[in-house]
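Q: What structure does this chain adopt?
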Amino acid sequence: MDRVERETAVNDVYVTVNGVRLHCVTAGEGPLMLCLHGFPEFWYEWKEQLREFGKDHLVAAPDLRGYNLSEKPAELEAYRVPALLEDIRGLADHFRQGKRFILVAHDWGGALAWGFAIAHPEALEKLVIINAPHPAIFRELLMNDAEQRQASQYMLLFRSPGAEAMLLADGCALLAENVLGEMLKRGVMTEVDRAEYVKAWQQPGALTGGLNYYRANEVGPPAPGNMGMGMPAAAHAFEGDLAQMRVRVPTLVIWGEKDTALTVKNLEGLEKYVPELTIRRVAVGSHWVLHEKAAEVNGYIREFIG
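A:
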């Protein structure tokens, strides 16, 4: 946390909700902005938002269950979406003092944020999603779009029994190269950042916790050989009538268009599910646009929340 602490007054807190002890980093005071990271990130993903929005909000960036310094339940069932959504509700209730709050999220955190907004619109003032697909559209693409199915093949690898050993080998070399490598080359991240990530990944059980999100919810494309089986259970974690999966909260979607894991087709038809929708595309941003274009992303969020 040293790099953030030098420029921003931040606090480490531990909150027990829904039967798990979660580590959070907070900054500022005022209306709550809750920030949810993705895989394989942790609270540190939001260091620029802690710095910027901590000026006039209480920004809370948790390590989600299974990650970094948060508790890591052993049971696979503990990583099912309903339990994860209850974690979010508990965290929000702990910090928001009965008031509506702003939910900002990326990747897996974004998937959960869509689900939370669908289930609990009364709790939210606004929703900000960064490169995370709405569950109804993602399910449709996994069923019918070859490009997205191909882009999602890594999810099957993440669900495999040997995923941890592969990702932890040689000081997390493969994971660091695939997630951080290009950003390190371009100076978007530093060796200090890389060390923070490796330290978080090497926390006992942390990679298993993150991978269990994919395993417990069977997230991913149909496995090879099952393409003719129609809608597979593995298509997406969120269940229910897709026609009812409307988000009744003002929503900003920021999308790095060079995302190789989630295609821009995830934006097509989104207005059917999100009536109060604002989309901001970042043409040169990848899945990691939050890091690559932090000032631009913060500008879009600031404009949206007023």
